[in-house]
Amino acid sequence: MLDAYEIDGPGLRALPEGVSLDHAKWIDLRDPVAPEAAQVEALGLHVPTLAEMEEIELSNRLYRHGETETMVVSLPGQLPDGVRVHRPVAFILAPDRLLTVRYHAPRSFDAYPGQADATAAGCGTPDRIFLGLIEAVVGRLADLLEASDRGLEVAGREIFAETAIPHQPALRASLNRIAAEAETLSKVRLSLMTLERALTYFTVRVARQSDDTTLSEIVKAQARDMAALVEHADFVAGRMGQISDVALGMISLAQNATVRLLSVVAALFLPPTLIASIYGMNFHHMPELAEPYAYPLALLAMAASAVITFLYFKWKKWL
């Protein structure tokens, strides 16, 4: 899918499908097909494949070719079938336009065109469109962090609730929730790391090419926002570890209570079993077998041994 936008006053206006891209200031390619890639490459811009964008070498993620800068960051998003993934997004910044290439759908990209004029950078130049997109992405990551924090709060309430202590399925559900939030947190932190690297690389471009002095201040403000989010992510990670440790401790307590109950039941039946085993031996000379009340006395001895064992456990507060 190819979406192209031109600057229209303080905002962006989508170009009709099929028109020339010569006046486009932002071209957004999502899952590009060959004709779309050829149309963009006719402008002198290279459209990277997903395999090229997934290369982990720094030279494949941040590089300059002529007057064009390429910055690849990792962002969370969705596939067309709704599956949540974490994939790279390429920002290709030429002197006269910005090209973004992505193979999934980060929500911030869909929301940005309608709010481009409301960002701190605005959208008067390709550089400002890039910074506005970064601002929208950082805002989305902040929303994900807040949602993760709220999910941890719900999990914490479930774990610390008295009704949840004896129920291991409830605790397991809480652990599953914590694991899901941990996965979200790891993706957010990875995105922030790649965004910080890209923003640092962009700072060099601003110092070398741009005459707009306000861009440097906007970049510094965005860097401070990212640093604050990283600190928030560290706080959420510490809280997540604490809550997961409590959940595992609760599960261990519940399991210990179950094992203790089984041990007590086995101990209660041990003395009666011993008596029954003695009188179940096949010896010819067992004087008690000839007594008329031997059978009820053996039953009474077994019951009394179980009761005495039970009272002893109660006295020791093992029950």
From TrEMBL:
<feature type="transmembrane region" description="Helical">
    <location>
        <begin position="293"/>
        <end position="313"/>
    </location>
</feature>
<dbReference type="InterPro" id="IPR002523">
    <property type="entry name" value="MgTranspt_CorA/ZnTranspt_ZntB"/>
</dbReference>
<keyword id="KW-1003">Cell membrane</keyword>
<dbReference type="Pfam" id="PF01544">
    <property type="entry name" value="CorA"/>
</dbReference>
<keyword id="KW-0406">Ion transport</keyword>
<dbReference type="InterPro" id="IPR050829">
    <property type="entry name" value="CorA_MIT"/>
</dbReference>
<dbReference type="InterPro" id="IPR045863">
    <property type="entry name" value="CorA_TM1_TM2"/>
</dbReference>
<protein>
    <submittedName>
        <fullName>Magnesium transport protein CorA</fullName>
    </submittedName>
</protein>
<dbReference type="GO" id="GO:0015095">
    <property type="term" value="F:magnesium ion transmembrane transporter activity"/>
</dbReference>
<dbReference type="GO" id="GO:0005886">
    <property type="term" value="C:plasma membrane"/>
</dbReference>
<keyword id="KW-0460">Magnesium</keyword>
<keyword id="KW-0472">Membrane</keyword>
<feature type="transmembrane region" description="Helical">
    <location>
        <begin position="259"/>
        <end position="281"/>
    </location>
</feature>
<comment type="similarity">
    <text>Belongs to the CorA metal ion transporter (MIT) (TC 1.A.35) family.</text>
</comment>
<comment type="function">
    <text>Mediates influx of magnesium ions. Alternates between open and closed states. Activated by low cytoplasmic Mg(2+) levels. Inactive when cytoplasmic Mg(2+) levels are high.</text>
</comment>
<dbReference type="GO" id="GO:0015087">
    <property type="term" value="F:cobalt ion transmembrane transporter activity"/>
</dbReference>
<dbReference type="GO" id="GO:0015099">
    <property type="term" value="F:nickel cation transmembrane transporter activity"/>
</dbReference>
<keyword id="KW-1133">Transmembrane helix</keyword>
<dbReference type="InterPro" id="IPR045861">
    <property type="entry name" value="CorA_cytoplasmic_dom"/>
</dbReference>
<keyword id="KW-0812">Transmembrane</keyword>
<keyword id="KW-0813">Transport</keyword>
